[in-house]
Amino acid sequence: MDTVLSVALLIAQIAVVVGAITLVVGLFWAWVLWLLKVGDKFARPRHLPTVTGEHELRTHSEQWVERRMKSAVLPRDEAA
Question: Residue 54's pLDDT is what?
């Protein structure tokens, strides 16, 4: 009976350790994904000037969209 109890306790301890490791790894990846989602807001403090000395008010994503819009080929207006 003593052996069965010690084996059961060993299995319970292993389950607790595996659960704790799974929880820590899951929280780490949740944090990484959260940083990827909101990373633009924390990439550089907004109150600090950029390299050129101007204050940047747009996020990296907004700048990317703006560059894509500027480089897009727009159709010519037929009336003009």
Answer: 59
Token match 């990373």: residue?
39
**Dihedral, CA of residue 59, residue 57, residue 50 and residue 72, to nearest 10:** 60
Secondary structure (DSSP) of 2-13:
HHHHHHHHHHHH
Can you list the residues of the chain whose pLDDT is less than 70? 38-59, 73-80
Show the tokens assigned to 22.
């799974």
pLDDT at 2: 87
How do the residues of the chain divide into helix, strand and coil, expressed in percent and rounded to 5?
A: 65, 0, 35
Q: By C-alpha distance, which of 35, 42, 75 is closest to 60?
A: 42
**From CA 62, how far away is CA 75, in angstroms rounded?**
23
Q: What's the one-letter identity of residue 6?
A: S
